[in-house]
Amino acid sequence: MNPDLIVPLLAAAVQSGTPVLFATLGEMFTEKAGVLNLGVEGMMLCGALAAFVTSLYTGSPVLALAAGGLAAALVGALHGMVCLVFLGNQVVSGLALTILGTGLADALGTPLVGRTAPGFGPLRLPVLGDLPVLGPAFFQQDALVYLSYLLVPAFWFFFARTRPGLRLTAAGEYPAAAAAAGLDPIALRWAGVLGGGFLVGLGGAYLSLAYTHLWTSNLTAGRGWIAVALVIFAAWRPGRAVAGAWLFGGIMAFQLRLQAAGTTLPSSLLLMLPYATTVLVLVVAALRRGASRGSDAPEALSVNIEPED
Amino acid sequence: MLRKRLALVLAAACLALALAACGSGEKKAEEKKEAPAAAKQEAPAPAAGSAMQVGFIYVSPIGDAGYSFAHDLGRKALADVPGVTTSYVESVPEGADAERIIRNMAAKGFKVVFTTSYGYMDPTLKVAGEFPDTVFMHCSGYKTAPNMGAYFGRIYQARYLTGMVAGAMTKSGILGYVAAFPIPEVIRGINAFALGAQKTNPKAEVRVVWTKTWYDPATEKEAAKSLLDVGADVIAQHQDSPGPQEAAQEKGVYSVGYNSDMSAFAPKSHLTSAMWNWGVYYKDVVEKVKAGTWKSSSDWWGMDKGIVDIAPFGPMVPKDVQDKVLAAKADLLAGKDTVFAGPIADQKGAVRVPEGQTIPDADLLGMTWFVKGVVGATE
Questions:
Q1: I need a labelling partner for A39 at 20 to 30 A (CA). Which of A200, A276, B104, B206 fits?
Q2: Burial, A296: exposed, middle or buried (Cβ in 10 Å; 0-12, 13-18, 19+)?
Q3: Is B73:B104 a contact under the CB 8 Å cutoff?
């Protein structure tokens, strides 16, 4: 293939991977603290709607982005209530949260369908943006894509090198030990739920502020579930999350380009590609894990912290 | 122990809330009446002299550009008909829910119920059997009953004209077409668009990308971008969202809209739109029902009756192109041109329609092949 086709494909892969990347990092953050949250899809939708409404009425994309994050964190707080306060089943609560979030965003957002709101547009970075191939592929994107570039190393640094990061990890690996060390694992898990929720909300906001400037019911179209799968694929490592998200985005963009290039393959087969790849990648990840006999998941993931009374 | 039980209760409450939220959107819509006093009465049939109730069921939210929006403009046009009140329910999924809502309307004494999406066909037929005094009108299907009619419009005529504009405006000769599902209605539209484009630019080719969604702005925009990447410089679409328009405007190329005038979404790129004008048809049906002269039929109205049209040209369309397109429109109106007049070859170059012949309606309704000049798969 010639570079004229590769470069736009890379650019599209990054752009369609970015909302998934934010959501994957958010879910990873929450899971690192030991809480499994399957409500990502619903939280993303609420984030996307809150961001869209805020942008529509204030005209400020930055404010809208924050609103998107906060809204998703707020919805995520429901999950925290169920799992951290009342010790409910994390799987059931997360599924309920997806249904709730989808329904809520649908009910509140219906009057806004079809309207356009201001958001983030392409922003060519000086110097980097002028590089051959890499420039147009990676550095002529919008501000939120650049934010995701910064977020990934920051995420890694936070968990690998800082004290709060280690404490969160402790709450996810072995909360009893964390408690013995004088920490409050419940408070740490709350931080995981809310902080992760905020990032998931940014992923939702990306869809309604940058990817499109529109709102519609079910704008996420399953991207929240892809994020949940990618956390496992990435083995709770932010670097691999980037690979997973861009791969998913890339295949999505690739199948459309294959059609545009005039292929005669049935479109139904092509449309299966991103999802089939996700399944395949999970199987491979599981096989590899089986071979190494270890698990990358936080030890106490989805295990509630029972009081000792 | 107690905490565990509490948690279960809470989880259950959460689920209940979620279900309530899912249901509430629909209920709210159901209550949106134009004339609440008349519409809310529960009597099986309105008393003589009271307003005739006409109901509409939409598959998507009305929004302000798409398919349901166009139908709702038609509903609003009924405001001119005296003694008629209208109401609607939006976002009704095709299936069991649809049947319940159609039955609800009939049970409330609605005289005419328009069900505006293909997937409502069987539910409509079923309910029509239960309420012989109500007139049911189903859009884009083929089943009818003594009290159920089928209707659609020849939007392909409008697409043909928009194709002429696109063909005249393209520099690369490549036109991009973002399409929803490979069904005859969409394929027919693509073919008409391509034939129109070839009329003003014999070398024009139409590249098709299927999204397999009716309304997913993110995917539809990405599909448009993929067409732009292979050199398309006019983007047309058969979707319910203006996502493709957004992509075209951002790239600084032209676009052709669908359903309603989409100039508001991309003022710099919008050449024209193929648009519906359901109002003329809805008025006709309602007036006939009022007068007692309505009879079940399968209607496929064309541009001559005003049910479809093209939106006003964007300022970038030169005068001579406008004149050419308007002349072709006049030919369509006068019946001198039928869009699908031979000779027409398919993608492989085999002649499907010889000179002097035209494709009959029955074949148009089941069209599953692309004309020459269309690049893409039909499945």
A1: A276
A2: middle
A3: no
pLDDT tens track for A157-215: 999 999 999 999 999 999 999 999 999 999 999 999 999 999 999 999 999 999 988 88
In a domain, A260, yes or no: yes
CATH T-level topology, domain B8-154+278-305: Rossmann fold (3.40.50)
- Please tell me the distance from the alpha carbon of residue B362 to that of residue A87, in angstroms, as a whole number: 63
Candidates A99, A213, A266; nearest CB to B379: A266
What is the C-alpha separation between B346 and B6, in angstroms, rounded? Answer: 67
A83: nearest CA partner in chain B:
B7
One-letter amino acid for residue A16 of the chain: S
Q: What angle do CA B62, B66, B71 make, to 5 degrees?
A: 65
Strand-pair partners of B57: B89, B115
Kindly give the confidence (pLDDT) of every residue in chain B, 379 residues in length, as a single tens digit, with 9 standing for 90 and above.
Answer: 445 555 555 555 544 444 444 433 333 333 344 433 333 333 344 444 578 999 999 988 887 678 899 999 999 999 989 999 999 998 898 888 899 999 999 999 999 999 999 899 999 999 999 999 999 999 998 899 999 999 999 999 999 999 999 999 999 999 999 999 998 999 999 999 999 999 999 999 999 999 988 878 888 999 999 999 999 999 999 998 888 998 999 899 999 999 988 888 888 999 999 999 999 999 999 999 999 999 999 999 999 999 999 999 999 999 999 999 999 999 999 988 889 998 999 999 999 999 989 999 989 988 999 999 999 998 8
Tell me how far CA of residue A124 lies from CA of A135, A137, A140, A211, B194, in angstroms.
Answer: 9, 11, 4, 16, 36
How many Cα atoms within 13 Å fall on the side-chain side of residue B26? 16
Strands B234-238 vs B174-179: parallel, antiparallel or unpaired? parallel
**Contact between A267 and B379 using a beta-carbon 8 Å cutoff:** yes
Phi, psi of B225, rounded to the nearest 5 degrees: -65, -35
ipTM higher than 0.85? no
Asked if B66 reaches chain A (Cβ–Cβ under 8 Å), the answer is: yes
Strands B344-345 and B351-353: antiparallel
Q: Looking at residue A47, which CATH number applies to its domain?
A: 1.10.3470
CA distance B99 to B126: 8
DSSP code for A118 = -
Gap between the Cα atoms of A45 and A109, Å rounded: 10
Q: How far apart are CA B200 and CA B185, in angstroms?
A: 24
Q: Which of A104, A252, A266 is opposite residue B21, by nearest beta carbon?
A: A104
Reference A69, options A203, A201, A224, A206; nearest CA is A201
Helix (H) or strand (E) holding A285: helix A267-292
| Distance (Å, whole) CA A156 – CA B120 | 52
Determine the 3-state secondary structure of B132 from DSSP: coil
Residue B13 C-alpha, separation from nearest chain A C-alpha, in angstroms: 10
Q: Distance (Å) from the C-alpha of residue B376 to the closest C-alpha of chain A?
A: 5
**What is the domain extent for residue A66?**
3-292
Strand duo B52-57 + B112-115: pairing: parallel
- pLDDT tens-digit map of A242-292: 999 999 899 888 889 888 888 888 888 888 888 888 788 778 877 877 766
**Given 3.90.1150.10, 3.40.50.300, 3.90.550.10, 3.40.50.2300, which CATH number is that of B155-275+308-375?**
3.40.50.2300
